[in-house]
Amino acid sequence: MTKAIDLEARLFMIAQMIPVCEVLCDIGTDHAYIPLYAAQMDLCKKIIATDIREGPLRIAKNNIEEHGLSHMIELRLGDGLDCIQDHEADTVLICGMGGLTITEMLEKNKRKVDICNRLIIQCMYADEMVREYCYKNGLDISEERICCDRNKLYTAMSIIPGGLPKKVHPAFYHASPSLLEQKTDLVLKYLDRRIGLLIRIRSGMKRAKDPDSEKTDELKEIINKLKDIKNERKDGKEDYGPLR
Fold first, then answer.
1. Domain that holds residue 224
2. 169-204 burial: b if 16+ Cβ within 10 Å, else e
């Protein structure tokens, strides 16, 4: 028997969110670590692992063969969801990319997104773009987890397509209610870091030659809302009120 795949904290968080399914598709698989874990845990009958680059796929192929899982994991070279057909995968992972790249991928492949059962998305940065896209396009963030890996905080979202668009306060683009429900002090640390980042962005905007007062005012409102949410969390109230 081959040795079980050992995942770093970020990848393990993502892997733990994969439901039992028929066909899993991992977009941007890199070295196929998550597909290997999913196959070893018998989470699905088939896995499609894709990447836009040939180099990572060659390494992925070696890893898959080394673990004796070539019969379960199929590798494909291509860009995003272009690699899969309609109804081919019921669970789709899109992880390790930026928020802009991910939202462009979702927008380009709306039909494929809407007919899959679940998306699991993990952003390396600009995750607020993905949350905003989800709210505006009827994608329900049913669960969001957080972990610390090498002193960096990462979140991952489990998303159910097919819902209705929601109008929410822009602060929830930065921290979804599903994330805020997590019973871990990492959420407070995440809020602190996000508030600090937005304060720095707003300060930079205000120093611009021709600052946009409407945008700086909107950012101030978001910062204040996130501060209120953080204080409610610290006080143990954990009631964030309506999303508006």
1. 167-244
2. bbbbbbbbebbbeeeeebbeebbeebbeebeeebee
Q: Which pTM does this prediction carry?
A: 0.93
Contacts of 224 (CB under 8 A, 6+ apart): none
Does 152 lie in the same domain as 191? no
Q: Count up the domains in the chain and report the number.
A: 2
DSSP lists the bridge partners of residue 61 as none
User: Which position has the token pair 């999913």?
Assistant: 38
Percent of the chain with pLDDT over 70: 95
Mean of pLDDT values over 229-243 = 70
* Residue 195: partners with Cβ closer than 8 Å, 6 or more residues away: 223, 226, 227, 230
* 3-class DSSP state of 67: coil
Buried b (16+ CB within 10 A) or exposed e, 205-223: eeeeeeeeeeebeebeebb
User: Which H or E element spans position 44?
Assistant: strand 44-51
Answer yes or no: is pLDDT of 1 > 70.
no
Q: What's the pLDDT tens digit per position in 122-134?
A: 999 999 999 999 9
Contacts of 99 (CB under 8 A, 6+ apart): 123, 125, 126, 127, 128, 129, 130
